[in-house]
Design goal:
Elements lengths: L1 H13 L2 H29 L2 H7 L2 H7 L8 E9 L6 E10 L7 H28 L1 E2 L14 E4 L7 E3 L5 E3 L9 H16 L2 H14 L4 H23 L4 H14 L14 H13 L8 H24 L8 E3 L7 H6 L3 E9 L5 E10 L5 H8 L3 E2 L2 E3 L2 E3 L1 E10 L6
Parallel strand pairs: 1-13, 4-6
Antiparallel strand pairs: 1-2, 3-4, 5-6, 7-10, 8-9, 8-13, 11-12
Length: 411
Amino acid sequence: MDNLLGYFAKLIEHLTLLDFLMSKTLGISLLIVIMLVVRPLLRKFFSAQVSYRLWLILPLFLILPLNTLDISIQSGMFTIVPNIHSVLTTSVQQLPVNKLSLELLICAMWVAGVLILFSIYLLNYRKLKHSLRPYDYQMPGNIECPGINIVNTKLIDVPAVFGLFQPILILPENFHTLSENNQSLILRHECYHLSRHDNQLNFFRVLFKIIFWFNPLVYLADKLIEMDQEVSCDSGLIKKSDSKFKKKYINALMETVEGQQTNYLLSQWNYQSLIKVRIKMIKQNNKQKIHGWIVAFFALSSIWIINGVVAKEKGNEFIKELIPYNVIPAKYPEKALKMGVGGFVRFKMNVNEDGSPYDIKIVASEPVGLFDEASLEAVKKWIFKPELKNGKPIKQVDGYYTMKFVITHEI
């Protein structure tokens, strides 16, 4: 059990939170920029539904594992073989990147930001939930929205769907004063959200903002996603309808903006401004269809391109190869000998003017933790060739070197 816990402790140590955030922030920022460029074209020539669906490239990129990025670093390699002389290898070994550049201060700031924003959202959620009260409203017979709980609150006086697993429909206190036709149209819109599970997607929008609280592009994207969500819902309702239905629908939206509207707990938008945008898009609704495979091709192509950009950017950071000239071979661990396994340990370190290493960190090892102690004990005693500037040795930072352990005589 202790060995298992020790293994996971080593594994967690090798997980690179800062590298994950940097890689994902770069990629997501570039994807948002792409969406900002193509979004007006999509809305003009296709529809808001296409634009709304394409925003899925952001969570897809987020869940894409880091090790799928084609990143490698170059490092010199020293090979340890039991019972024979170790060999200093001058060839370059291509190894997958698992950078351990965890700056404690930056990570602490990120965690603090996550906790603060999470607390704010949690307080707002509790505030809204505790303010909800049953709304004695009879759903029209032509509206199919089974199992929905209808409530109202003084904190929000616009129609909205709220909740993750048990969605509820929030209606303004004066909703029953609208004309029956307008009530029906507004309810159809909200039930359309439920049929697409938009309430659950909104939860992940919040989670996305919490993770990337420091990135202003994420907030801009979230605001546009909300707009596309609403407009695509409108588009779905008016699809195949005539101009008379569109006018009735626009009138229903306009009637909901009369008076003071409050929706700050659920939206970045001013409700009146969002309604104006929705009405504008309804009037110029584009019915042109687009095949799903075209959308999928664009989404996958965007992710693939950004993956390449991130990989190249990250790969350019890891090109410093350290050159040792006084080495002490590490002792081959007895446990590894008994298991009959080999592996490697890759270090990141700085080198003083006299060639002595310091700030040594293990950025990758395989098997995790098996060779760490022996290799680290040895490399601390090594002397590396210092970097020269104007003929004088200077400190070298962020250099890499790999120690390889093999169980056979094949090197």
